Amino acid sequence: MDHRNFHYLLSKQNLVSDDDVVDVERDTKDEVGDHFVKGRKRFACDEIYLSDSDHSEEGLGIELQHDLMDKVGLVESALSELAHEHQLTIAEEMRDQLSALEAEVMDENEKLASTLERVERNTEAQREMSRKFDMQYQRKIAEALDDHLTAVQRDHEHRSQIEERRIRDDAAREEAKRKEKALQEEKARQEMIRAEAKVQARLEAERVEKEKAAALEAERKAAKEAAAAAEKASESLMNAPSEANKVPKDVTSHKHSAVVLSFQMIHQMTEGGNTIRASENAQKLEEKRLMIYNEIASQNEALGSGSNKVKQATLRGAFVFQICFQEDRACRKYEMEIARRIRTITGTKENVRVKADELIKLISDSTCPQSISIAMFAQKVVSLCVNPTGSFNSAVYAYGRVIVLVTSKVPLAMDILIGELNKVCIYAVPKYIIYSEAAFQTKEAYYKAIGYTEEDGKIESTDSYVDRLSAYMKLYGALVQTEVEGCQNLHGLREGWAWIARFLNVLPANLYTAAALQAFLEMAGFALHKRYKTQFRKMLDVIAKDFLTALKDRGDAKLNKVIVNIRNYIESNQFLKEPEGWRLRSNLESHNFTPESDHQQQYGYQQNRYYY
Question: Which of 38, 65, 117, 440 has a CA that sits 20 to 30 A from residue 198's CA?
Answer without folding.
Answer: 440
